[in-house]
Amino acid sequence: MTIEQAVYNFRELIETSIVNGGNIAKTAMIRSSQPILNMHEAVKSELMQRGINQNLIYPPLNQRSPELKLAGLLKQKDQDICIKPKNINPQPEILQDGLLKGLEDQYGQIFTEQTLTINVRSQISSIQKNFDTLFERTYAEAQNLHERSPSMVLGEVYLLAVPEYDDTAFGYNNILFKQISQNLVEKYIKSFTAITDRIDITKNFYKYESTSLLIVNFNYNYPKIYHTTQELINDGLLPQNTTINYDILSWNNFFDKLLNIYDVRFGLNNLI
Known about the structure:
Layout: H1 3-32, H2 34-49, E1 57-58, E2 69-71, E3 76-78, E4 81-83, E5 93-94, E6 104-105, H3 109-113, E7 116-123, H4 131-148, E8 154-161, H5 182-193, E9 210-217, E10 224-225, H6 229-234, H7 251-265
Parallel strand pairs: 7-8, 8-9
Antiparallel strand pairs: 1-4, 2-3, 4-7, 5-6, 9-10
Helix pairs in contact: 1-2
């Protein structure tokens, strides 16, 4: 599945639920994970196109389970997409530190650290109102895993609707969009730039090795995905005099950056 197909399917599921059942149906659709699972499949497909062994990807292509429940310092959590290293077998161990002390980790720290992990999120409304909570949750995931496994290679794909959907219209079964806020777009780009490109494994545990802030304009017959700063400027999503560099967060750069860092740390042959 291409990213274009994934975003189109995402939009169709969300908007059909709003038209047919309003806010209640939209909430149920999001909780079902059906829309975001399209993004998962696009990520898996891109990985396979870059030579990643399909049999090492969890959950497998076109499946939503099994997920790998990996342990960090503070919690164990099912990860959206993992690529298992083929040269290391899981070695269960009892956790000795943090909130998980005394619990069993079925994979072990060495296996966990060499598992390439990508999480996928989306936000289509209440983007300003929920910013602090959403952003703190995002970097907390990296912090948790890196505290226990400093060399672990983490990726984050975050779909952001710009303009955002008008959530006050959901209850009337309407599809409307709020006015674009260039300041808000800059805020998101600045924030995600601050938590990406982690190279030094001894610090910055809150950062991801690679992050894609996937800005999408759903207010088109076919959703428009942005890849460059200039594209955002051309469509009025960023001011002409912006100093923001969106390119480093684009979908086009995400995978090469992620796999290059893994290759340096552990050798890409472990994943192909």
